[in-house]
Amino acid sequence: MRTRRLVIVGGVAAGPKAAARARRYDPRAEITILEQGEFISFAGCGLPYFIAGQIAEARELMCTPVGVVRDETFFRNVKDIRVLTRTRAVAIDRAAKTVTARRLDSGQEMVLPYDKLVLATGSRPVRLDLPGMDLPGVYTLRGIPDALAIREALAGVTDVAVIGAGLIGLEVVDALLAVRQTRELNITLVEKLAHPLPALLDPEMGALVAKFLRAAGVNFLPAREVRRLEGQGRVERVVTDQEEIPAQLVVVGVGVRPETELARAAGLALGPTGAIAVNEYLQTSDPDIYAGGDCVENVHLVSGQKVYLPLGSTANRHGRVIGDNIAGGRDLFPGVVGTAILRLGNLNVGRTGLTVEEARRAGFDPVPVLCAGPDRAHYHPESRPLVIKLVADRATRRLLGAQVLGPGAADKRVDVAATALTAGFTVDRLATVDLVYAPPYATALDILTHAANTLRNKLDGRARGVSPREVRARLARGEDFVLLDVRTPKELEEARLDLPNVTWIPLGQLRSRAGELPRDKKVITFCKVSLRGYEAQLILDAEGFADVGFMEGGLAAWV
Question: Are 471 and 552 in contact (CB under 8 A)?
């Protein structure tokens, strides 16, 4: 048989992974990677940690675990793969099955024949069409050159503005918080929508992130429209519809768009998201052309809809599937559940599945619940708090999504929920998963199990949870109801809700003092995390009170 000719356009994540996997599958294939940038196979998700100084040298982002740099020489000698950096693919001739490429340094063009072609062209940062965007000192974060420039520029500034509170923007803020530990740095975060991570979190969870940002000294400005950037010779300020913000350095992180120009010019089909359409084998509309990574759309396994969710983890999984398939195998990529996580100072924020609004748009009848508690035994010295939000469908009780945040170990709870979503678990099945237990790792019933059980009780009508957001809305409307605090006297001294409708009766005294509460008003009970709040609801139910609920998440979820 003639040697397979495999050409891969894109050399960051999905492309090199596909090439390496294809080589393992077919040791004789002729494999070429084209990459228009200078660097290949680098860890793009590590760029914020390089900016923070937590990674000393950029080369560490390009190394194997044993310190060997993944460059052209590495791929040639170790993988027998030809890599051409600073080389842009400019055209695809599908009939002739060739790719025309141009060397960016010399302008020389070459034509490469292929049997199978892979497009791993990635994404590009969204640039705001605003006056002043071209001023020196304004950056986006896409690759190593951007990170090098931002890290160098940071050395001489005291006022930094980040535009966009999505994943990229908050990862940059995390880097800036690390830098601020060693010197003065004023950080402003501007977001067009009402809360951070608006594409990933529901409003009450986003509000908790906003609370953390402000407590950490970040000037978080939500619901702002950036009008222009101004400065003489370089950026000096960001002008919004409400204020002027001093900034000698601005990082714009308002999202990315799939890089589809090459695919579009070749006549390949794009999907409803605007990214390249692929099937379960990651083939495009041309069966000899595959695509993966940030340039393609995926199927969401919960909603069944096409989604654009560019993540490094997904790109690497794409690469493995593509590598098998272009080398003669037949592997499948079924889809994603939208799992993501980030660190923000000492706050961990993760999500998977659908938010309430996403679930509603997908045709479900979502029922959410908030649950707060420790990530391990409360008496263990390493115990840290978490807030979990679960969403399930009312009719089928199918788990639809999870959001987890706090200083505690959010990642393991998100991963368990992602597994449950992939398997199509109901919330009842999630509650029975045999999770590990020992005091250094979890509580006897893990907080995720507690959240699942609380949601089961809510679906069954036993637990009548009221979200903190709804409690605030009731207060804003001037409704006459009782907020019943059932915490201990010591807890009351440490923190209290300073509101006129708050009544305090410790849980242990509630049965004997229930007569002190009005029976003609709604009563909403709460404690620190509302486990006792739920107990208080049950006590008042037994005492004949007609309209009682408990505040989900308790004070831990209150903003």
Answer: no
Q: Which residues carry out catalysis?
A: 45
Beta strands in 104-232 (DSSP E): 109-113, 116-119, 123-125, 138-139, 159-163, 186-190, 219-221, 226-230
- Name the DSSP letter for residue 217: T
Distance (Å) of CA 239 to CA 163, 247, 534: 11, 10, 47
**Residues written for the chain:** 559
Q: Which residues, at least 6 apart from 219, have a Cβ–Cβ distance to it below 8 Å?
A: 186, 187, 188, 189, 245
The rounded Cα 263 to chain-centroid distance in angstroms is 27
Could you give the dihedral angle defined by the CA atoms of residues 184, 189, 190 and 195, in that order, rounded to the nearest 10 degrees?
Answer: -150
Dihedral-angle region of residue 420 (phi above 0 means left; psi in -120 to 50 means alpha; beta otherwise): alpha
Question: Amino acid identity of 249?
Answer: L
Instruction: Characterise 531 by phi-psi region: left (phi > 0), alpha (psi -120 to 50), beta (else).
Output: alpha
Give the H or E element holding residue 82. Answer: strand 82-85
Element (H, E) at 340: strand 340-344
The answer to whether 31 touches 8, Cβ cutoff 8 Å, is: yes
Please check whether residue 458 is in contact with residue 464, taking contact to mean a CB–CB distance below 8 angstroms.
yes
Mean pLDDT by 10 residues, the chain (559 residues): 90 97 96 96 94 93 93 95 97 98 97 98 95 97 95 94 97 97 96 96 96 97 97 97 98 96 98 98 98 98 97 97 97 98 97 98 97 96 97 98 98 98 98 97 97 96 94 94 96 90 96 96 95 95 96 91
Q: In terms of Cα–Cα distance, which of 118, 164, 147, 188 is closest to 55?
A: 147
**Is the overall model pTM greater than 0.90, yes or no?**
yes
